[in-house]
Amino acid sequence: xxxxxxxSRYLVKRTGxxxxxxxxxxxxxxxxxxxxxxxxxxLRLIYFSYDVKMKEKGDIPEGYSVSREKKERFSLxxxxxxTNQTSMYLCASSEGTGGVIEQYFGPGTRLTVT
Amino acid sequence: xxxxxxxxxxxxLSEAASLELGCNYSYGGTVNLFWYVxxxxxxxxxxxxxxxxxxxxxxxxxxxxxxxxxxFSFNLRKPSVQWSDTAEYFCAVNPVxxxxxxIFGTGxxxxxxx
Lengths: 114, 114
Prior knowledge:
The structure holds two protein chains of two kinds. Chain A is an all-beta fold. Chain A has strands at about 5, 10-15, 20-25, 30-40, 40-50, 55, 65-70, 75-80, 85-95, 105, 110-114. The model of chain A has no long low-confidence stretch (mean pLDDT about 95). Chain B is mostly beta strands. In chain B, about 0% of the residues lie in helices and about 50% in strands. Chain B has no helices and twelve strands.
């Protein structure tokens, strides 16, 4: 079974702090994604990566950056957390272009910025 | 821009009632279609998917969905719901030209009462 793990289930940070959210997948997937999930808005794509050191902006990249130094790990960085970044953050992975496009999700990190 | 609409935001049913959740998308080309489910406290998981072939697809736990190309729809159905189907349901579309990106709907929260 594909396993996608996220470093924290719950996180509380102060406004202005730098926040790191970590995601690891164990299936050698090419693609990795970061979403935020908000009530009534569904899942919105923040960033995705289709290869090590490659990244592309999703629909709402402002205020976020990402890092993918190793194939299995994809980090989401909030450079200076703000209260409007309080949300549930979901990481996902998928096999790669031409392969199975089903995305596998981690359990999520509920981030509260105070 | 492509979008996915789920018009039912919150559905309340009694056990044994029939379920149909609507999903419409706005993209004229070839698409792959998905329904994901998120049970309370659990991660998002795939319910069923359509890539090609028979437009009526069957998924886990007795769910099925029908792809109607002329209506740009992919509605989810279950003839008789159970209390354990209480969850949030997300429709997602992958425009085939756009590799592995998924566009999610805003979700439908289903509550089933015994």
